[in-house]
From TrEMBL:
<feature type="transmembrane region" description="Helical">
    <location>
        <begin position="150"/>
        <end position="172"/>
    </location>
</feature>
<feature type="transmembrane region" description="Helical">
    <location>
        <begin position="56"/>
        <end position="78"/>
    </location>
</feature>
<dbReference type="GO" id="GO:0009236">
    <property type="term" value="P:cobalamin biosynthetic process"/>
</dbReference>
<comment type="similarity">
    <text>Belongs to the CobD/CbiB family.</text>
</comment>
<comment type="pathway">
    <text>Cofactor biosynthesis; adenosylcobalamin biosynthesis.</text>
</comment>
<dbReference type="InterPro" id="IPR004485">
    <property type="entry name" value="Cobalamin_biosynth_CobD/CbiB"/>
</dbReference>
<dbReference type="GO" id="GO:0015420">
    <property type="term" value="F:ABC-type vitamin B12 transporter activity"/>
</dbReference>
<comment type="function">
    <text>Converts cobyric acid to cobinamide by the addition of aminopropanol on the F carboxylic group.</text>
</comment>
<dbReference type="GO" id="GO:0005886">
    <property type="term" value="C:plasma membrane"/>
</dbReference>
<keyword id="KW-0472">Membrane</keyword>
<protein>
    <recommendedName>
        <fullName>Cobalamin biosynthesis protein CobD</fullName>
    </recommendedName>
</protein>
<keyword id="KW-0169">Cobalamin biosynthesis</keyword>
<dbReference type="Pfam" id="PF03186">
    <property type="entry name" value="CobD_Cbib"/>
</dbReference>
<keyword id="KW-1003">Cell membrane</keyword>
<keyword id="KW-0812">Transmembrane</keyword>
<keyword id="KW-1133">Transmembrane helix</keyword>
<dbReference type="GO" id="GO:0048472">
    <property type="term" value="F:threonine-phosphate decarboxylase activity"/>
</dbReference>
Length: 307
């Protein structure tokens, strides 16, 4: 087991942050790709017949338990290095920026069709008929929510349970993204993954909402969080997106088309509809919130080391 330069926690943090900033998301052989392929294979074989909720729960266990055991083996031999690599694999800050920039750049150049295609790669709604406002709205909603899922929750679970917490959260979040839909196919089978994801993201989402409020228009963010979050279908996305929209002074939510069905969603935030320039403001807000949370985590690890 390699010896840590500082404390194991601080050394793992430094390794994870360095790899995230220097490399970003691995282009090849990403473990989540293999995990997703295995999850798809298992879903086809288990998501049929009766007792689909029980089958879905069994699928979650069959996927998570071996993954956590494999990480335990890696950590036995690699120690804090395994924690740092787990943090790198799970952090999605640089990848999130790249996905959002792939939407913002063509919008700025007036290439709406290209921007629609790019936003369609990160959201589940139909984007083929979106106007500029619709693209901006979908982009900001995804950015604010993923600022919680891909950054804040990863840091939270690293602080709480190290690499084990990071691995557990990221894999459950992946299963929710694959199966957590209220469709005929996934309504029952994906419920276990969706509920577990709600549980794991409950505190991180509210921590993210607080960070957005502190890093933007605090008064509007808190008001939107208090009065609008509970009306959103997702108990965790509601506080995050309401606070983020309020912090930016824009209005999100409204009509959207999912799986061929038009849905009228509650309004989030207050002020005008978003425009292309608000995407850069959203990136700046999530960056400030991410830096704030990373600084708090580092301070916590320093305090542990000193004590």
């Amino acid at each position: 087991m390699p010896s840590a330069i500082l404390s194991p926690g601080l050394s793992a943090l430094a390794l994870g942050f360095t790899l995230e900033l220097a490399v970003g998301e691995p282009k090849h052989w990403h473990p989540l790709v293999a995990f997703g392929t295995l999850a798809s294979w298992l879903e086809v074989r288990l998501n049929l017949g009766r007792s689909r909720f029980t089958r879905g729960l069994a699928a979650v266990c069959l996927l998570l338990v071996p993954a956590l055991l494999a990480f335990a083996l890696a950590r036995h031999y690699a120690g804090w290095v395994a924690d740092g690599i787990a943090l790198w694999f799970a952090l999605g800050a640089k990848s999130l920026y790249q996905h959002i920039e792939a939407i913002r750049a063509p919008l700025m150049a007036g290439r709406l069709d290209e921007a629609r295609a790019a936003v369609g790669r990160i959201v589940s709604r139909d984007t083929s008929a979106l106007d500029e406002t619709g693209v901006c709205r979908a982009t900001l909603e995804s950015l604010l929510e993923n600022g919680s899922d891909a950054v804040a929750a990863t840091l939270f679970w690293f602080a709480l349970a190290g690499g084990y917490g990071v691995i557990l959260h990221r894999l459950v979040n992946t299963l929710d993204a694959m199966w957590g839909y209220r469709t005929a196919r996934f309504e029952r089978f994906g419920k276990a993954a969706a509920r577990l994801d709600d549980l794991l993201n409950c505190l991180p989402a509210r921590l993210t909402a607080l960070a957005y409020a502190l890093c933007g228009d605090t008064r509007r963010a808190v008001a939107a969080w208090r009065h609008q979050a509970s009306g959103w279908e997702s108990p965790n996305a509601g506080p995050v997106m309401a606070s983020g929209a309020g912090a930016l002074g824009v209005r999100l939510g409204g009509a959207a088309c999912y799986h061929g069905q038009r849905e009228i969603r509650p309004a989030l935030g207050m002020g005008r509809p978003p425009v292309t320039g608000d995407i850069a403001r959203g990136l700046a807000l999530t960056a400030r919130a991410g830096v704030l949370l990373a600084a708090l985590l580092t301070a916590l690890e320093v305090a542990r080391w000193i004590s």
